[in-house]
Design goal:
Mean pLDDT: 95
Structural class: alpha+beta
Strand content: 5-15%
Strand order of the largest sheet: 2-1-3-4
Shape: globular
Radius of gyration: 17 Å
CATH class of the largest domain: Mainly Alpha
Oligomer: single chain
Helix content: 40-55%
Bound molecules: glutathione
Number of domains: 2
Number of strands: 4
Length: 217
């Protein structure tokens, strides 16, 4: 278990959007960490009792830091922000923070749970699952396009002039939409412009799933 001052341990799956949020936050905040792969697709490491002892929901991610084990990606991001405020991932004004949370909620409540790989077992046929996850992802992208066209027009980030939780949630979710769900994001011009620009940012380039795939970072 990582004690205060030691390297953090991130339990994560390379293709998981929730894992990418935390991986990117650790890099943005320049924190040393080791990634321990939890395969949630083929080997199903997350279904083991030993992983359940780490994360009761048996989902990724989990982060061991400061001698504690934390679960739920947004709780982890909040903890990192409160314990390591610089560089900040939260805008300075209440209004911009509200705008950031509008985007975050659209993704963490309105898209991610409705396309989670764990839902597959609730559908008899792959096509039903695919139709379901694609429709909720598209609906969420439509919302994001409207929200971001107000907050991010001609800007590099979702909200204001800094990287925030909103960006950390947006990039992994759009990556899923494109790579897993084969959604054409060109119909969402603000989303796609922001996504392409943010992918070039080191925080996302260094933590990209394709870079992490198959091993620890
Ligand atoms: N609200 C949780 C969601 C975690 C979650 O759904 N993780 C997915 C991967 S992105 C997972 O582990 N799915 C496996 C399953 O549901 O069995 C968080 O933000 O950490």
């Amino acid at each position: 278990m990582a004690k205060p001052g030691e390297k953090a341990i991130l339990y994560a799956f390379w293709a998981s959007s929730c894992s990418w949020r935390v991986r990117a936050a650790l890099v943005a905040k320049r924190l040393a960490f080791e990634e321990r792969p939890i395969d949630i697709v083929k080997k199903k490491h997350h279904k083991t009792e030993s992983y359940r002892a780490i994360c009761p929901s048996q989902k990724v991610p989990a982060l061991v830091i400061d001698g504690e084990t934390l679960v739920e990606s947004m709780a982890i991001l909040q903890y990192l922000e409160e314990t390591r405020p610089q560089p900040s991932l939260s805008p300075a004004t209440p209004l911009l923070r509200a705008r950031m949370r509008e985007i975050v909620e659209t993704i963490v409540a309105g898209i991610q749970p409705l396309q989670n790989v764990g839902l597959r077992g609730s559908f008899e046929h792959e096509e039903e699952y695919t139709k379901f996850v694609r429709s909720w992802t598209v609906r969420g992208l439509e919302t994001l396009e409207d929200l971001l066209s107000r907050t991010a027009r001609d800007r590099m980030y979702c909200v204001g002039d800094q990287l925030s939780y909103a960006d950390l949630c947006l990039v992994p979710q759009v990556f899923n939409a494109v790579s897993r769900h084969k959604i054409n994001i060109n119909t969402f011009p603000t989303v796609s412009k922001l996504y392409e620009a943010l992918l070039k940012d080191n925080v996302f380039a260094a933590t990209h799933p394709e870079k992490v795939k198959g091993g620890t970072q």
